[in-house]
Structures are given as C-alpha cells and as structure tokens.
Design goal:
The protein has about 500 residues and is α+β, with helices and mostly antiparallel strands. The protein is built from 20 helices and nine strands. About 50% of the residues lie in helices and about 10% in strands. The structure holds protoporphyrin IX containing FE and 2-acetamido-2-deoxy-beta-D-glucopyranose (5 copies).
C-alpha cells in the first residue's frame, strides 16, 4: 500500500515538474528547450560550465529579443535586446526595482544594499551614496597607494634583478592580494599585507565564501532561486558560514573600538559609523569624525553595518582583481596597444613629476579606453538580474511580463555579441573613442544601469587603474602564448582556467 502511494506521489511530482517546462509557451512566450529536472542549467549542475557561461550559451542559442528559460525549475525571462534592458533598468525602473534574491528582516546580515527591496533599499542607497563621492574616494587614495607599493615591493622581491631574465607569475594571484588589501584598508580600516602574510584571515575569507561544498552550492542557489523558502530555514544555519562569522567579528571590533576611543580613519567603515550614529553620512568630504550616539539612538545595528561591509568585500574583490588581471593579459597579447598605453602612462607621469596621484591617473585617457574595453570583454558580473515588481507591457513585442517574473540579462552575451560590438573577441580600446565609436552604447553596461547600478564605479575604476600603473611602470609583461582565455567551470564571476600566467621582468 505504502509503495503504491509513493509511486503515485512520485509520478505526480514528475508530471508536475515536467509541466513547469511548458510554462512559457502556455503564457505566450518562446522558450529554449529544457530538460527534466534541471531546466536550462544542466551544464552548471554537471559542473561543466560556470553560471555566467551557461547563461551566455542560452543567449547564443537564440536571436529573439526576449526568451523564456528555466533556471532549474524556475521560469525566468532572458532579455537579449539592449533597448528593452535599458528601459527595464532606467525608464521603467518602478516596475523592476528589486533583484528578488533572499532578504529577511529577521536576519539583519541579509539586509545588504544588494538584496534589500523597495523603500528600504531606496532609503539606504541614498544614505550610502555620499560615502562613494569623489572627495571621499580621493581621501582613500593614499591608503590604496600604500597597497600598490606593497605589491611593487613583492614583485621586486620575486622577479630577478637581471633585466633579461623573465619569471612566470600568476598575475591573478597578485591582483587578488592587491584588491583584498585595498578592501581591508579602505573599507574595513584594517591594515593587511597579503603579499607577506599570505594566508591572513581576511584574505582567506574569499575561499570560505566560494567553498565548493555541496551545502554551500545548494544554499547559494536557494538564495537566488527560492528566497521565499529560505526564509523558513533557521538563521543560524544560513549564518553558520565561517566567513560571515568572521565578518561580524571584525566589524564589531572595529566599530566598538572607534566609538569608544573617538578614533577616526578615512575609510568606508568611518562612513558607516557616521550613518549608524547620526542617521546620515556627512556630505562634506573633509568631515570624517562623528559623535557617538547613545545605544538606543543608533540608526543601524552592528549586523546591519556588517551586512554592508560583507557585501562590499564580495562585490569589490573579485570584480577589481579580475578586471586588472584580464587587462594585463590582453596587454601582453596585443603589443601595439601595450606600447601605446605605456607611452600614455609615461607621458602623463612626466607631466606630473613622476607623481602617481588621483588626478594624474584620471588624466591617463588611453588607460580609460583600455579599462573600458577590458570590462566589455570580461564583465565583472557576467549576469545581471531583476524581478518584475509590477505587470509590464512591452509594446514592441506585444507581451506582458507578469509581476514576480525573474529577469535575467547576460552581460557577457551582450558584450560579446557582434551585432552590438563588431569583432567581439578582438581587444580594441579605440572602439570607445568618440570619433571612432563603432559599438551600440545601449548594450554597454559593465556596472549595470539605472538607479540600481554599481554604487562604487569610481572606487572600482581608480583602484584597477592604480594597480595597472604600479605594475606597468616598473615591470615588463609578456605573454606565454597567443591564446584566448578559457573560463573555468565554477563561480558566478568569470574565472580564468589555471589562473593568468604571464612572464614578468624588471625594466
Ligand atoms: C571593477 C569593479 C566593479 C565592477 C565591474 C562592478 C560591477 C557591478 C555590477 C554590474 C553591479 C550590478 C548593477 C546592476 O544590477 O545594475 C554592481 C552592483 C553593486 N556594486 Fe559593484 N562593481 C565593482 C566594484 C565594486 C566595489 C569596489 C564595491 C564596493 C565597495 C561595489 C559595490 C556594489 C554594490 C553595493 C552594488 C549593489 C548596488 C545596489 O543594489 O544598489 N562594487 N557592481
Ligand atoms: C571543472 O574544471 C576542473 C578544472 O578546472 C576539472 O578538474 C573538473 O573535472 C571540472 N569538472 C567537471 C565536472 O568537469
Ligand atoms: C542598439 O541596439 C538596439 C537593440 O537591438 C537597437 O534598438 C538600436 O537601434 C541600436 N542602436 C544603434 C545606434 O545601432
Ligand atoms: C616608458 O618609460 C620607461 C622608463 O621609465 C621606458 O623603459 C619605456 O621604454 C617607456 N615606454 C614608452 C612606450 O615610452
Ligand atoms: C557566442 O557567440 C559569440 C559571437 O557572437 C562568440 O564570441 C561566443 O564565443 C559564443 N559563446 C558561446 C559560449 O558559444
Ligand atoms: C567608459 O565607460 C563608462 C561607462 O562605464 C563611460 O561612462 C565612459 O564614458 C567610457 N569612457 C570612454 C572614454 O568612452
């Protein structure tokens, strides 16, 4: 009898899940054939492709402006047309103001700017904005430069003095350490030297976050695919990840120390402390100190501050480190561009008496083109997403997107689509020149677009540029072979398979 019921139940479940895969045709949309039970993400489940590359495959599998897909068992819409994407991000933001990933007010660590929704997101976004002003970023520049010097000292120590001798180095490892130390210093206000102390706790968090355990992968997917169900999981399980615990610990220690001792440092933590104690961040970029408020008058808890700091770590580390590493790789592959950039850096520095400053770096116009092209070919976040928060009609397609529908954008797919960017695999910084513009501007969005675009564009860019200048000024880089980078089969970001190995020598 029991067996019989079980068979009925499983058969029912089977047909139910199968019926999910006809959701889009039943609702008037084209879709991409999906297989039971992993939908269009079988290659991710099998470990053959990373999420970003699997979504690019779907992007390439069709030429429709909008197409229905199935993320495992969840129907979503993949938008391929850049004008429609632009409208969703900007003009019609009110219909798509959330990302629809897990966030729960009973779990303050989940309340990061990235995940928050509606008015809560809006309030925090406008409060945090002043901490990313150019004045504040300039205030942090010295700290970044010190990390750049640490990197230079390290490279000097491992590369032979003989200028003709080259050493093969995984530059992704180097840029990881550079980016982590900068985040430690300019965001958390702690000084680390990951070039010397190679396994320091702060640096090693990245491995804990990406830990490739079954549980971690399952939770990571659940946060994105079924956030409503995650709300019922006890919080201590969600927050059992050692990386989270460590984050809360250091944020608590730092805030307690500064509040007790009126200690002031020019970093993002200081802005969070201002916000926590006064309800706002000072718009005057010269005022960093703050009067500590009584416990019951504080506007943010330690956990809510930690949620932002943790997000900044995740959002800033991989993106900055990989952009810098991919740039170096492309320079080594394209000698002419490399020489042009070297000349641009030399000449600008000469004009500024050899001083590397925020302003001298901003003046390097060819560097800007190179960075833009790097982020075109290798977007730091290969996939963007939103959730439809109010029914939305697309006139040109004569379809209605229903409230609650997840929206997926393959930034990697768009950035490598020849209809938007001719010769997409070629590294052509000049394509961004005003008078040679040969790309579709609406399809270029390395930092997203609209009110919910990356809050730290200036910070991200200046640190990548500084890293490039610090390396290119003192060292020569050379490719090992002429080759396109292959992407590894894990992570959300684009991971170069086997790292990024280049030959470095002293100038
Ligand atoms: C080169 C470096 C970076 C790249 C390429 C990058 C890219 C992005 C992208 C594509 C988004 C999503 C935008 C959207 O959905 O429209 C985003 C969001 C975000 N990024 Fe960045 N990012 C970088 C550096 C940073 C850094 C250094 C920080 C923090 C200090 C940061 C903090 C954030 C935050 C908080 C959000 C969420 C904004 C919101 O939802 O209101 N990013 N970033
Ligand atoms: C994923 O890639 C790694 C190498 O980067 C490889 O060792 C592993 O076998 C791959 N996984 C699968 C399931 O193919
Ligand atoms: C850019 O692409 C969009 C979407 O395909 C298209 O509507 C628009 O006309 C294109 N713009 C240019 C300048 O080609
Ligand atoms: C830039 O200056 C360095 C020395 O500081 C020199 O070795 C290099 O050849 C110069 N590069 C160009 C393209 O002018
Ligand atoms: C998708 O198509 C573009 C060219 O349109 C190509 O560069 C890219 O390699 C293709 N990606 C995949 C994963 O097939
Ligand atoms: C580089 O890209 C950004 C968008 O990320 C854009 O605002 C800027 O104008 C671009 N620079 C050039 C020189 O095209």
């Amino acid at each position: 009898m029991l067996t019989f019921l079980l068979v009925i139940f499983l058969t029912g479940l089977y047909f139910y899940i199968k019926s999910i895969y006809t959701y889009w045709p039943r609702n008037g949309f084209d879709d991409i054939d999906a297989t039971f039970p992993f939908g269009n993400l079988d290659s991710v489940r099998k470990g053959l492709k990373s999420f970003g590359c699997a979504i690019q495959d779907l992007y390439n599998a069709t030429s429709s402006p909008i197409v229905g897909i199935y993320l495992f068992f969840r129907p979503a819409l993949l938008i391929r047309d850049s004008e429609i994407v632009k409208n969703i991000f900007t003009k019609d933001f009110n219909n798509f103001h959330d990302r629809g990933i897990y966030v729960d007010e009973n779990d303050q660590l989940s309340e990061s700017l990235f995940a928050l929704e509606g008015t809560k997101w809006k309030a925090l976004r406008s409060k945090l904005a002043p901490s990313f002003s150019s004045g504040k970023i300039k205030g942090m520049f010295l700290a970044s430069e010190m990390v750049g010097k640490q990197m230079e000292i390290y490279l000097n120590s491992i590369i032979p003095d003989d200028k003709n001798e080259k050493k093969v180095i995984d530059v992704k490892d180097v840029t990881y350490r550079y980016a982590a130390d900068i985040i430690a210093s300019t965001i958390f206000g702690i000084e680390t030297n990951s070039f010397k102390d190679k396994t320091n706790e702060f640096f090693m968090i990245k491995d804990k976050i990406n830990e490739n355990t079954f549980f971690n992968k399952l939770l990571g997917m659940a946060l994105f695919l079924c956030p409503q169900i995650v709300k019922f999981i006890p919080k201590f399980i969600i927050n059992s990840n050692p990386a989270r615990k460590f984050m809360v610990k250091i944020v608590k220690e730092t805030i307690d120390f500064r509040e007790k001792n009126n200690f002031v440092r020019k970093d993002l933590m200081q802005s969070l402390i201002q916000l926590r104690n006064t309800g706002k961040i000072n718009i005057d970029d010269n005022i960093w100190d703050v009067e500590t408020a009584a416990e019951n008058l504080k506007s943010m808890t330690i956990e809510q501050c930690a949620a932002q700091a943790f997000l900044f770590y995740i959002a800033g580390l991989e993106t900055s480190a990989s952009t810098l590493a991919f740039l170096l790789y492309e320079l080594a592959q394209n000698e002419e561009i490399y020489l042009k950039l070297e000349k641009n850096i030399n000449e600008t520095l000469e004009k500024h008496n050899g001083q590397i400053t925020y302003d001298s770096i901003q003046e390097m116009s060819y560097l800007e083109l190179c960075i833009n092209e790097t982020m075109r070919k290798y977007p730091g976040l290969p996939v963007l997403n939103r959730i439809c928060t109010e029914d939305y009609k697309i006139e040109t397609e004569n379809v209605i997107i229903k409230k609650g529908t997840p929206i997926i954008i393959s930034l990697l797919g768009m950035h490598r689509d020849e209809t938007y960017f001719p010769e997409p695999l070629k590294f052509l910084p000049e394509r961004f020149l005003e008078d040679q513009k040969n790309y579709n501007e609406s399809a270029y969005m390395p930092f997203g677009d609209g009110p919910r675009h990356c809050i730290a564009i200036r910070l991200g860019k200046i640190n990548v540029k500084l890293g490039a200048v610090m390396i290119l000024r003192k060292f020569n880089i050379e490719a090992i072979e002429k080759k396109e980078i292959e992407f590894d089969n894990y992570s959300v970001a684009l991971m170069p398979k086997g790292g990024i190995n280049l030959k470095l020598s002293k100038k």
